Amino acid sequence: MEKMIAKGAEAELWLRDWNNLKVIFKTRRPKRYRHYELDKQLRGIRTGREADILHRAKMAGVPTPLVYMLDLDNATIVMEYIDGVKIRDVVEYLEKDERYEIFRRIGEYSGLLHKEGIIHGDLTTSNIIKLGQRIVFIDFGLSEISFEVEKRGVDLNLMNRMLTSTHYVYQEDLLEAFIEGYRSSMGEEAGEALERMEEVAMRGRYIEKE
User: Fold this and answer.
1) What H or E segment, with its residue span, contains residue 63?
2) pLDDT at residue 206 tops 70
3) 32-36, 89-93, 160-164: which has the minimum mean pLDDT?
């Protein structure tokens, strides 16, 4: 079995059978406009960094796909296939209490990432999967290691924007739950990051008005 399930600007995701497992092959595609050797080196570095961050996140207590194999020469990660549903697609079908608890956990996991110095880079409900009782964070392709408050604020603003645009009916409750969870794992550092989230949102609104 082989099926392409996503194709982005940087990488392709293929669902395949591998060693009696359903897995995802994530491969960064060559960029023809770059010098061949430089392109190969960059893709290898970014692939290695993503695999490392997946491992760091898991060690920090955040559920992420297992990495089964890393092929730097071909810029490929073979990882666990999370056969669940994106949080984005189930929010409106959940009971109020379950929605609140899920977003409290999402906030808690986001805090654990930031506490460990991991900036997700695309922190939205499209990149979080519900599988039974598991809440799994995926797609760390834009992730980086940083303890900068600005980058934490940008990460949080991405989630807030998603709640406002896609889940606007429940935005206030979901943001409240997210912040509760975030504070529980980030502790005293949460306040500064959340303030920066508001500043980033204000800057975005100012630019839109311009």
Assistant:
1) none
2) no
3) 32-36
| Torsion angle, alpha carbons of 125, 24, 79, 120, to 10 | -30
Alpha helices by DSSP H, listed for the chain, are 36-59, 87-90, 96-115, 149-166, 171-186, 189-209
Residue 194's closest CA among 152, 159, 158, 161?
152
Statement: residue 152 has pLDDT above 70: yes
Contact (CB, 8 A) for 185 and 147: no
Q: Are 177 and 103 in contact (CB under 8 A)?
A: yes
- pTM comes to 0.92
CATH number belonging to the domain at 2-80, selected among 3.90.550.10, 3.30.9.10, 3.30.200.20, 3.40.50.2300: 3.30.200.20
* Residue that is written with structure tokens 């039974």 in the block: 132
List, by residue number, the catalytic residues: 122
